[in-house]
Amino acid sequence: MDEKRPSYDLFTPTFKADPFPTFAQMREADPIYRHLAPDGSTIWYVTRYEDVVAVLKDDVHFCKDPRHAKAPETFSRTSRQSPMHQLINENMLFSDPPDHTRLRALVNQAFTPRRVEALAGVIGETAVSLLDTAAERGTLELIADYALPLPVRIICALLGVPPADQAAVSDWSQAIISPGSRGLNYSARRRKVKAFIDYLQAMFASRAAQPQDDLVTALVQAEEAGEKLNEKELSSMVALLLVTGHETTVNLIGNGVLALLQHPQQLARLRAGEANWETAVDELLRYDGPVETSTTRWVREDVLFRGQQMRRGDVMRAVITSANHDAAQFDEADTLDVTRTDNKHLAFGLGIHYCLGAPLARLEGRIALPLLFARFPKLRLAVPPPELRWRSGVLFRGLEALPLIIDA
Ligand code: HEM
Hints:
This protein has helices at 13-17, 20-29, 49-57, 77-81, 83-89, 99-110, 113-117, 120-137, 142-147, 149-159, 166-177, 186-209, 215-221, 231-247, 249-262, 264-271, 277-287, 320-323, 358-375, and strands spanning 32-36, 42-46, 62-63, 140-141, 223-224, 227-228, 297-299, 303-305, 308-310, 315-318, 380-381, 403-405. By secondary structure, it is an alpha+beta fold. It has one domain: CATH 1.10.630.10. The strands form four sheets. A five-stranded mixed sheet has the order 1-2-10-7-3. A three-stranded antiparallel sheet has the order 4-12-11. A two-stranded antiparallel ribbon has the order 5-6. Strand 5 and strand 6 (227-228) form a beta hairpin. 40% of the residues are buried. Residues 56, 92-93, 104, 155, 240-241, 244-245, 248-249, 252, 289-291, 294-295, 320, 347-349, 353, 355-357, 360-361 line the site of protoporphyrin IX containing FE.
């Protein structure tokens, strides 16, 4: 039966350049699509809005910690106990209740709305200084010069990483996130992870002795029902925040600027004050958001889901960018409308793993985008859109680079 089903190109650069027609086809013909990985395992792609909602809200049939979906003997004990594995995978994004509930409650105490709102000033100052540098130089490659350094500096400021250490921390975080693209072999990566863990441990000790007004201090002090985060949990929590700080908001700014430059009438409405940036940022998150599919969920037990028999241990991917273009949920779903208000998009996920950083990401978008367009009234693409390269991988959706012309 499977042989007769169409297979979809979900990985090539052509697909990445414009995945929306493929997702429309999948929503129509194959809304719960079974993909067979090279090792023979099953990956389910769920593309309709209502099904993506169902998957993200269902932590009974689907789980985040693979140990809850697979037999324990399939896990190599040594690899799961390595400091590198723990730093990258033992965090709340890859855990289930009750672990997730405890970790999230602890971080919620530290990551407060007050702490996020207090960052508005530093976001604005950082954005202006990056734009000043571009203006002096006369060129702007949006990703490297603005969309990436801005959220990285903000997450470092939030955590309390001093400016002098930010380059090293960024280097270590990149080694965790994308070792392949940086040409790092296993032992080079392990060395960097070790240096990172040593740095974090020293930081925790210093904050415990001398508390500062930063998130690391708040995490060190957070306590829930008599329990605190232990050192490993603290390290992987901070690593998770750094990784999300490097990989997501960059794409909100990058994809958002590209969408607005390709829709000059929508941009003109924003410039003229006929539309507001708060609404526009959410529409940009819906229209071409930073996260293509949710992080991996695992089928906990054999289950019949929307008529498809899923097996314990199968991988589940909820395709967020597809759900956000589903005409069953959104009027004119493929149209960018910066005044759209009925906009229950899923760019930040849903359910217990709903994005912790959503208020911060929105704030960064609402400050960074208007400052950029105000500074460069004639901003335009430096290359035709077909020449733009999108990053590979199923998780994120973002440009490798976005060269722009800033002069008059
Ligand atoms: C526009 C930018 C962002 C987008 C689109 C985004 C999107 C998401 C999504 C879709 C999830 C859920 C993943 C899943 O259920 O599989 C998530 C979770 C998460 N995000 Fe974000 N994110 C953004 C920015 C940030 C920032 C700036 C931070 C940190 C400061 C952050 C921290 C987190 C954390 C810690 C989780 C895990 C929450 C949990 O497991 O309970 N995110 N994000």
